[in-house]
Amino acid sequence: MSWNGFGRVFRFTTWGESHGPALGAVVDGCPPGLALAEGDIQPFLDARRPGQSKFTTQRQEPDAVRILSGTFEGRTTGTPISLMIENTDQRSKDYAQIAGAYRPGHADYAYDAKYGLRDHRGGGRSSARETAARVAAGAVARLVIPEVSIIAYVAEIGGDAIDPAAFDAEEIARNPFFCPDAGAARRWEGLVDQARKSGSSLGAVVECVATGVPAGWGAPIYAKLDADLAGAMMGINAVKGVEIGDGFGAARLTGEQNADPMRPGEGGGGPRFLANHAGGIAGGISTGQPVVCRVAFKPTSSILTPVESITRSGEATEVRTRGRHDPCVGIRGTPVVEAMMALVLADHKLLHRAQCG
Amino acid sequence: MSWNGFGRVFRFTTWGESHGPALGAVVDGCPPGLALAEGDIQPFLDARRPGQSKFTTQRQEPDAVRILSGTFEGRTTGTPISLMIENTDQRSKDYAQIAGAYRPGHADYAYDAKYGLRDHRGGGRSSARETAARVAAGAVARLVIPEVSIIAYVAEIGGDAIDPAAFDAEEIARNPFFCPDAGAARRWEGLVDQARKSGSSLGAVVECVATGVPAGWGAPIYAKLDADLAGAMMGINAVKGVEIGDGFGAARLTGEQNADPMRPGEGGGGPRFLANHAGGIAGGISTGQPVVCRVAFKPTSSILTPVESITRSGEATEVRTRGRHDPCVGIRGTPVVEAMMALVLADHKLLHRAQCG
Amino acid sequence: MSWNGFGRVFRFTTWGESHGPALGAVVDGCPPGLALAEGDIQPFLDARRPGQSKFTTQRQEPDAVRILSGTFEGRTTGTPISLMIENTDQRSKDYAQIAGAYRPGHADYAYDAKYGLRDHRGGGRSSARETAARVAAGAVARLVIPEVSIIAYVAEIGGDAIDPAAFDAEEIARNPFFCPDAGAARRWEGLVDQARKSGSSLGAVVECVATGVPAGWGAPIYAKLDADLAGAMMGINAVKGVEIGDGFGAARLTGEQNADPMRPGEGGGGPRFLANHAGGIAGGISTGQPVVCRVAFKPTSSILTPVESITRSGEATEVRTRGRHDPCVGIRGTPVVEAMMALVLADHKLLHRAQCG
Amino acid sequence: MSWNGFGRVFRFTTWGESHGPALGAVVDGCPPGLALAEGDIQPFLDARRPGQSKFTTQRQEPDAVRILSGTFEGRTTGTPISLMIENTDQRSKDYAQIAGAYRPGHADYAYDAKYGLRDHRGGGRSSARETAARVAAGAVARLVIPEVSIIAYVAEIGGDAIDPAAFDAEEIARNPFFCPDAGAARRWEGLVDQARKSGSSLGAVVECVATGVPAGWGAPIYAKLDADLAGAMMGINAVKGVEIGDGFGAARLTGEQNADPMRPGEGGGGPRFLANHAGGIAGGISTGQPVVCRVAFKPTSSILTPVESITRSGEATEVRTRGRHDPCVGIRGTPVVEAMMALVLADHKLLHRAQCG
Q: Is the pLDDT of residue C1 over 60?
């Protein structure tokens, strides 16, 4: 079905380009009666907002969200929630020079091949600016699943990983990298700063954990929770890989090593699992364990080093990106990963309720 | 939308349990006029069929497909194509003992938690037997995209990877592992045989490459080709990770290393790319390069070693699987990966045609 | 989305042609735990079955349904329910003569124009035989909405209407016309018999009333209950008009005449309505009153009188239908109308539950 | 799937309440390269705009549309087109008195029963003001089907019908009733004015004809062109009946009378039909004849005469509507019917192209 909407019953549709007047999301299927105001959404947009440290793009966008419909006297009414964010700091002229050439690694050539034309200003619709709309919609999704806590963090930048033993959830908000390991955060300062200064870029791995998901969400066979999460995450700009639980690591384990043994739970609840290689999902359905996924972000394609490319008319050229860009898009991708997790889970909660009451 | 259907305009719905009378797929939206007979589907089912070597489950299923609708005088009519495969070799009694207990790593507990009851015979709907229906549907999908060649192969078993330098596409059909490296295939014989004999199991990584995909398939933002592939692959039984192009490896590259430079193509065609880190997809749209994905299969959860578990009534028990199982499900997953690639591409070809003519 | 599926969360997909080996439906999204066996479906198929009186087609089909998946030990499991009905009495040679010509009023020309080929045997996919699959699926839908009673009956044949004052629900099953007015049933015997003998055909109006639908089902704006009913009914073969409540009659009333005043209900329940011009739906949402719709069936297009037509190659010809046909398709359309009502309501019950708990 | 979106591949989602800051539509799946500016949409909104004569509501809304995304340098880019219309003339206080009571005939009670709360100001989401968003989206749809001409007109008000012999398409734009019969238009002036003055209201029948639709659009079985039209029209506010071609009239014809004979067409084109009882659709697929539908609008439910009702707390009351309303909503429904016709046809054109190329 449609191209720019996501979800089955809790569904959102996004619109807008990097350099248009605004962008937004329409959230459909939200349960009625939930307390919702701009203040419930803004903090998540602020976390994703550019220009907050020297480690992210210097584009300055307040990214103030407006709720244009779907609430009455501070509560959701069950009708579509229209969220709009105006674009304010657009320097389209930065892009004039690449109007006629394709930036390697970007979607420029692909868009042109598909549509026969493209909005070259800041990547148009293919810009990661679209993810602001996801984050806004994700903030609404969180209200639908108050039983769930979602946390995402950067686990690796440029191949330098955190030390799991040093994991401190409190630390995530204390550094500009969403890094739960204070030591790694310090190392990354140098790493990312050097990439920024040299006009290079770095990749990253983001992990996301959702706790409190009850057993039973997700549905076989083509609405599996893990499949939907994989689609949701892979669709984020710059993402090239998704793992659930042990992911590729599981392919190197034996059946014995990969088992998640169960013991009787406390007080008649579900089982107590002795491990979580599965990442909280079996057969596409949540097991009650934390839902765990890992997401690989490629390095930002916009770099200062000239790369061979071609013009729209097919002639050889070189492209050096001059616009303002993130040296490591994975960092600002972290709130987007959280949002997509919330959006998938909210949809599956409602979908489960539809079938199973 | 629905749980057991996949695809937007080229869409299939599967049904059936491991130990029911039959299973099948209904393929909807297929273009009319394509030559189609059972003989176009059967070879793909045969490739996936169990019991062909000692390295796969000994369940013996002819997996003969019947076309019950949608063709007339050997051609597709544009109406739904109903494909049915009868189940013949079911030994449900093998499963009687686990009717009351949950097999760790399987979907037993999750299904019960979700639905309040489950068909325990062979995993019921959660059995990998459902993938036969995907393979049948995938064979129809291939007819929709004659311009595309799809090849999948096992790239790694139990952590032992093929040597890319020894890659020989001809070799894939010559060994029971869909392995393109004759040397690796020899090593895997011992590896898998040992796992089988000891009642253990191994994971695997399957790679899939589609060549001939023109630039322009896939559509932003929530119908991206890579997002749909990720969802399609992650939904295959036992899959825990998906990569497009360099995948997680891209997270460890710099922007310079990850660039796919372009040069003018021959004869006015699209660009000639000097690398394919992106795996043939940019911004969710195909670039004309080969579409490449990698899929991680966990080791089969059914093992002879007893694993701690609980009964339906919540008491502690141990489960040792006695049914006939694959020591490495990734092997027979290979034709399924191919099928899902074909199904996603066929859908996107038609979707692209819908919007862009 | 797909062409041959209907419904959002309670969703069914049908397949099969008039003269293929079988036809069927796959019901997806059915809640688990419902008691379901063939015996719950067969009576509805029997009601629709041809060859039961001289007033319907003489094609003799047992229309015995088989459940191929989705149940375990007599209960639904929440997985897809595959229903299959074999075709047994096909006389394809009856149709050989019209292989090369288009029957006026039928879909022959339209199918050929669309697909470039067609299965001419009995209309292929466009045959009303497909409605057997709807009736089977509808029988499952009824289990999902035990709080609702659905009754459909023929209110008019060939312009001869029932007398509302003579309405007797018991009468419906006593005559071959699903007619609630014994006097009208007697008149119709002569009317329909004469049409049959002269090779002519008659139209009909079918009314359907669903009582017990609670207030709150249906959802604005593009999933309105009345809009979904209209689409569901208009999609039945030979249907040309649909009304909700007073329908076209409402267009001739004043606002005062059309008002449905409300008084406080008994025991704190919903309001007591003093009229039901609205047919139980306001703003696309059920009000708790009976849901009422009326459906117009055109006369069967297959008649013995020759009608001008053209051949596939575009030459003038005449077509006289010789196959076995119903003199009034509206009669056997009655169980189909009931089925579609059940299918729409079941879907909306689950959809409402998804959003509103 | 979602509640507030319509269409399969050409899909739009609307949002907004009668008394919110704005309302809008997001149009997804639009082909790229079409010339589109606000000026292509505004005339259709102007035709629907309130306050243009004494025969419609006196609410004064400029209904100026803004395009917020999806175009670049005056052409569609293939990405979502966000259309926004600000609400300017809201007198919410008019509605304060009915905050606690349900207006009979309106969706007030149904919304409250469904959602547990409602935006009572002007009907909130259930207001016919939402149809402005449909009209805006419909204007985009028209650009997708330049081969088609769509015309809608009022054929009947308060039971007073036009004379088909006096039909003059030019007349439609000359009177405030979209009436093609100058004589009827004169009669209606008195009729509607009297209803307005007495605080009463009238129903209407709107006819819509689309010429130029090629044979082959629409798809069996659950994406039939007539079924989609029926759903689209029945979903318009105040609509209670839909007919395709002869509609209910066909139920009173014999097979001979209802036949649409065919003769060879000119120049090798499709057949020349001698009648169009079918309204241009057979088997759910267009035949190349004009697509004809008729839509019944009930009289406006808002009337000055007090009607028995209940309060939110269940007590008896009387409701007399004081807001500004149309004495005959069918009049302003005419551009909405046209828009829905365009939206359905545009979707089916693309859907046909997807499957059949």
A: no
Q: Tokens 């005056």 map to which residue?
A: D74
Best CA proximity match to A237, nearest among A97, A132, A320: A132
Complex-level ipTM: 0.97
Contacts of residue A14 in chain D, CB cutoff 8 Å?
80
Residues 6+ apart with CB under 8 A from B78: B30, B31, B32, C114, C115, D219, D355, D356
The DSSP secondary-structure symbol of C101 reads B
Contacts of D269 (CB under 8 A, 6+ apart): none
Over residues C52-77, the mean pLDDT reads 89
pLDDT tens figures, A183-209: 999 999 999 999 999 999 999 999 999
Average confidence (pLDDT) over C118-129? 89
pLDDT of residue B91: 64
In chain B, alpha helices (H):
38-48, 108-115, 131-144, 182-197, 225-234, 255-258, 329-356
Chain Cα centroid distance, residue C314: 34
Closest CA to B112 of D291, D84, C223, C78: C78
Contacts of C194 (CB under 8 A, 6+ apart): C200
Work out the pLDDT band at D90, boundaries 50, 70, 90: low
Of D177, D151, D159, D137, give the one whose Cα is nearest residue D15: D137
pLDDT tens readout for residues B128-173: 999 999 999 999 999 999 999 999 999 999 999 999 999 999 999 9
* Pairing between β-strand C11-16 and β-strand C22-28 as defined by DSSP bridges: antiparallel
Contact status, residue B327 vs residue B201, Cβ threshold 8 Å: yes
Mean pLDDT, chain C, whole residue set: 94
In 3D space, the residue among A349, A221, C40 whose CA is nearest the CA of residue B234 turns out to be: A221
- Written as six digits, the tokens of B74 are 């050997």
Whether residue C301 contacts residue C323, with contact meaning beta carbons closer than 8 Å, is answered with: no
Nearest CA of chain C to the CA of B31: how many Å?
A: 8
**How high is the pLDDT of residue A324?**
65
D100 touches chain A (CB under 8 A): no
D63 and D53 in contact (C-beta within 8 Å)?
Answer: no
In the predicted structure, residue A61 carries a pLDDT above the cut 90:
no
Residue ranges, chain B, pLDDT below 70: 1, 90-95, 268, 323-324
In this structure, the strands spanning D316-319 and D307-310 are antiparallel
Buried b (16+ CB within 10 A) or exposed e, C308-347: bbbebeeeebebebebbbbbbbbbbbbbbbbbbbbbbbbb
- Chain-centre distance of CA C147, in angstroms? 21
Over range A278-306, report the average pLDDT: 96
Buried b (16+ CB within 10 A) or exposed e, B144-154: bbeebebbbbb
Residue of D nearest to B31 (CA): D355
3-class SS of residue A35: strand
Contact C67, A344 (CB under 8 A): no
Minimum CA–CA partner of D10 in chain B: B355
**Residue D79 sits at the chain B interface (C-beta within 8 Å):** yes
Round to whole Å and give the CA distance between C178 and D119: 44
Whether pLDDT at D295 is above 70: yes
CA atoms within 13 A on the CB side of D259: 24
| Binding-face residues of B in 2-61 toward A, CB within 8 A | 2-6, 8, 14
Please state, as a whole number, how many other Cβ atoms lie within 10 Å of the Cβ of residue A60. 13
Q: What does the pLDDT average to over A283-310? A: 95
Most B CBs within 10 Å, among D26, D355, D356, to test the B interface: D355
DSSP state of B293: E
Read off the pLDDT band of C99 (50, 70, 90). Answer: confident
